Amino acid sequence: MGSYGISKVTLYVLNTIYAVLGLAIAAASIWFFCQVTEFTTLRNSNHYLLDYTVYWPQAIPWLFLIVAFLVLGVSACGFSSAHKNSRGLITVFVTAQSIAIICLIAAAVVALVFADNKSTDDFVKDTVWDVYFQTKTDNEVATSFGVIERKLHCCGADSPRDYKNWKNEFPMSCCDTYYHGFLDAYTIDCEFTNKLANERHGCSTVAAQYARIVIKVLSGASIFTAIIGMMSLGVAVGLSKSIAKKRRIQALKNESESKKVLL
Questions:
Q1: Is 5 helix (H, G, I), strand (E, B) or coil?
Q2: CB contact set of 206 (below 8 Å; sequence gap of 6+)
Q3: Beta carbons of 103 and 67 less than 8 angstroms apart
Q4: Fewer CB in a 10 Å sphere around the end CB: N or C, the chain?
Q5: Which residues contact 151 (CB under 8 A, 6 or more apart)?
Q6: pLDDT digit string (tens) for 105-140?
């Protein structure tokens, strides 16, 4: 297998990895959007009637989702150019890949500079506190917030002691680990003396930390995808040169055969 065949196979492999990474970023972005929406839909809507601000934790999923779709489109172009052996398609792929790489790096930089900071913590804290206050008057919100407490293993807004001023005991969602019985259900002690519940962090702290982790992971995945894109870019340029060389050799061969016929 010559350099042409090696370049073609390598481009197929790199584009496959590139497409898989694009799908992973898209899936993670959609999941992150759903998690943020799970909190924001429980807020008191009257507090946000005139608030049209889009906060970074709300914008980041869309930013990476757009980049992920761009990656998938570019990878499709890469497969097509490698399959058809067209220098024109490879030129289009190289141009599109260059744009995609810039967008991937830009998305990661924007996320790390603007989203992975105190502004995200403040947004999450304000949202959790708004939801927490809603639980005092709305049973449906209280039930949904309890689901979040179980999922994140947190309790209250800032700390488990937030419940002390208006409840006689912790909600069951702060003590759900006691549900792990193998035979029969048993009474759950969820009083304010419950050691396990008191050791939990507040949901604002836990949610903010998870948001920061997701932003870092998406940014890291974006940069890694850009590196794979750079590799495929180099291979595509090499493949284009191999195609040009192959065509020159074929042209010289045809010319040589024509001269032999004339002789």
A1: helix
A2: 152, 153, 154
A3: yes
A4: C
A5: none
A6: 999 999 999 999 999 999 999 999 999 999 999 999
